[in-house]
Every structure is written in structure tokens, then in C-alpha cells.
Amino acid sequence: MTIQNTFSFFKKALQKPITRIVISFFILLFLLSKLHLSDLWHSINQISLGLWVLSLIVFMAGHVVGVFKWRLLINTSNNKLPLSHAFPCYFAGLFANIFLPSLVGGDVVRAGLAIRFNKQKESVILGGLLDRFLDTSALALIVFGVTLFFPTALSPEDHKILFWVSMLLLGFVLCCIVFLVVPLPHSMPNLLSKIVVRFRNVIKHMAKNPKQILMGSGMAIFIQILFILLFAFLGKVLGIHLSLSIWFIIWPIAKLSTTLPISMGGIGIREAALVVLLGRFAVPSSTSLGLGLIWESIFIASSGIGGI
């Protein structure tokens, strides 16, 4: 079997829900096999039902802000998506995150529903991509900001990794600039050329509205900080006593790991990332996994409410 055939095989396998369910199951099973279940249960029991419900409300409030942010970014054309339609589209995408590969899968669902109302494919798709880009950029900015003001929070090896990640982000930005500036080759098919031109027009329209981009960026940073503070609070209740600067590094990295399209909604990937990251600060695996499972339950519950 050639490399190309092998890659095609795994790509088709990952597109099947049962494959992603099995991967998530085995990741969690492997993590559970490395600890005592009684210790895990003790960690989870530190969170009372009332505190869990309060955390769910705060989590949902963050996503309500996310609805306004997403709607702001996709409404670049004259055909605006009303708020009454934006809410069900957004929360349908949140619900779909449970079943689709990585957290990006829900973006496709909400974009498809929004196009039914908006009828402006380019603005919805590009607005959705910009929304995801701003969320990712907000996480990156938070990590880089913390490492800049608290340089001792990470080891020299971690600083090297962040440097190369920043270079990749810079390369992505440069590619976007090239996409806007470089003339299209004459050999490009007419259909593809028309699509690119239409996307360019939407991007240029967005560039003419910097206030819209700045507002979206501010909302993205606010949402991520809210989630980090909530996560740090739950960690403290479980007995994880780390400085807030460490939480502002660990949570974004764990969140970014869930974008890998190999599991069901990132389940298992986040928990594994937390066990590894918190393990570097001598946090027991049972406590790290318990925190991850509690956060996963809040995520699944909010997604279920979104489906309803």
C-alpha cells in the first residue's frame, strides 16, 4: 500500500462517526487505566451540583456573546441575518460539535443553516472563517501575552515552540495578503476565478470596516478570558493551586488541541492534553482527568441545550 493510499484510507476512516467514537473511547480508557477510579471519583465529587449548574450558566452566557460576535462578522452584505435566526443557527452548530470531528465541525453546520436565511454564501463562509480565526488568534494572543509579561512561567523549550507557532501564524497572514494583492493567473478556470473574485470582494468589504473586526476581536478575547477564569476556578475547587498566569497558558493549549479532527468533538484529546500539561506542575492525573471530565460534561450539557 502506497503512502497516498494509506493517507486516503485513514482520511475516509476518520470521516466515519464510529471511528471517532472509538478513538475518543480508547483515549479515555487509556487515561483511566493509569489511575485509581476512587481517586478520580473523589476529584469529581469536589464539584457540587449547584456549582456545576452555575458553571453551566456562565458557560452558556459566554456562548450568547459568541452569537453576537458571529452575527456581527457574517453580516457584511445588505442581506442581514436577523438575531432571531442567528441564535438557532449558532446553537445548532454548538450541538453538532458533539458528533462532528473537532470543534470546527459545528462551524460548517451553522454556516449551512445561515446561508438558508442569508442567501449570501461568501459573506457567511468568510465571516465564519474570520470568527474561528479571531477565536484562535485570541487564544494565541493570550498565551503570547502571558509569556511576555511572565517569562518564567514557561521553560526555554516551550518558548521555542511558541516561536515557531508564531512563525506559522505570520506565514498564514502573509498568504492572506498575497491572496488579496496578487493578480489571478489567466490559466485559472473561469468558474474558480469567479469564486476567488467574489471572495476577494467580501474580504475587501470587511477590510473597509475595521470597527467591525475590532469589535469581533474584543468579543473573542472576552469570551476566552471568561472561559479561562471559569476553568481556573473549577481547578481551584478541585485543589489545583496554580497561578492564574499558568491557567492562561494551559487552557488555550488544551482548547487548541481539540481542533484535531481525530475524535468525537475533541472528547479525549482535551483530557489527554490536560493530563500532560498539568502533570508538568505535579498535578495528579486523577485530578487533571476529573477537571477535564467536568468541563466535558458542561460542554456536552450546553450543546444539548443548544440542540433543544
Overview of the structural elements:
- With 308 residues, this protein is mainly alpha-helical.
- It has 13 helices and no strands.
- α7 packs across α10.
- It is globular and about 65 Å long.
- The protein starts with a helix and ends with a helix.
Short description:
The chain is built from 13 helices and no strands.
Topology:
Blueprint: H1 3-14, H2 17-33, H3 37-44, H4 49-74, H5 83-96, H6 105-118, H7 121-149, H8 156-181, H9 190-207, H10 210-237, H11 244-257, H12 269-279, H13 285-307
Helix pairs in contact: 2-12, 3-13, 4-5, 4-7, 4-10, 4-13, 5-6, 5-13, 6-7, 7-10, 7-11, 10-11, 11-12, 12-13
Broad shape: globular
This entry's quaternary arrangement is: single chain
Structural class: mainly alpha
Strand content: under 5%
**Which sheet architecture does the biggest sheet show?**
none
Keyword list:
mainly alpha, 78% helix, 0% strand
